Amino acid sequence: MKIIPIIRPDELIRKFQIKNFKLYDVRTGPDAKEKYLEKHLKNAAFVDLNSDLASIDDPKNGGRHPLPGFQDFIKTLGELGIDRDSHVVIYDDKNGANAAARFWWMLRAVGHENVQVLDGGLQYAESQGYPLSSGNESYPKTQYVPDYQNWQLPQIWIDEVKLATQNPDFVIVDVRESQRYQGITEPIDLVAGHISNAENIPFSENLDNSGLFKSPELLKTIYSDLFENYDRDKIIFHCGSGVTACHSLLALDYAGFEIPNLYVGSWSEWSRNAL
Questions:
Q1: CATH of domain 158-273
Q2: Is 267:17 a contact under the CB 8 Å cutoff?
Q3: N- to C-terminal Cα distance for the chain?
Q4: What is the reported pTM?
Q5: Quick check: helix, strand or coil at residue 163?
Q6: Any idea which of 81-85, 96-100, 244-248 has the lowest mean pLDDT?
Q7: What Pfam families does the entry give (predicted)?
Q8: Could you tell me the CATH superfamily of domain 6-133?
Q9: Where are the domains of the chain?
Q10: CA 194 to CA 259: how far, in whole Å?
Q11: Are 101 and 28 in contact, with CB atoms under 8 Å apart?
Q12: SS3 for 12-65, per residue?
């Protein structure tokens, strides 16, 4: 039976009874590790977006957060204490909209099905009385033995995206905030704007006013037109650096859709190539 990709804090407490349950804090920012050490959900180990979930080199070639090599990521999973039998739950401090969703996508992309993202993230779990801890926590190292030797979820690369901008059979979805999409502001990348012919469905539309994921039924109404009008392999999601786009892919999976293409390089790569 397919696992539901979103989990609530009250459900999470019951997961402690599951053998090989693992909880990970994937918050981001320049002081993310320091904040984790000060306060995190009990039993959560820290995962670093930049060193564990990306292989950062030249943003012009792959964007700000390109994927690490497949085998490098498999090694990282073992170092984090994850094996094939692990039931993994991930959270961040941005309603799952940042590195939690990215880590979820990467695990699913290596064929790991038992992975969920904590609805509402750190703040909501804390407000619900979930137990907290401080200091560093970790799990014993393991060896992750994958069934595959490369990523299993669909990706698309910059040359293919360029062709897609000229092909009406494709749709490109930009999940960044509308002001970034419109080029009104750009707080991170060098150039403001968006990929030619891209639509804007901000990732914030996946969430209700409390910062929780909308129901699968409501999410289905948001995205049904995409899947009614385009084949799954011709739908492309992107963001600034291939991280937040995974939040919308997570929402799509929660709503029961097949996961479409992720353009990992996203605007950070596209904008640096004068396209």
A1: 3.40.250.10
A2: no
A3: 43
A4: 0.96
A5: helix
A6: 96-100
A7: Rhodanese (PF00581)
A8: Rhodanese-like domain (3.40.250.10)
A9: 6-133, 158-273
A10: 22
A11: no
A12: HHHHCCCCCEEEEECCCCCCHHHHHHHCEECCEEECCHHHHCCCCCCCCCCCCC
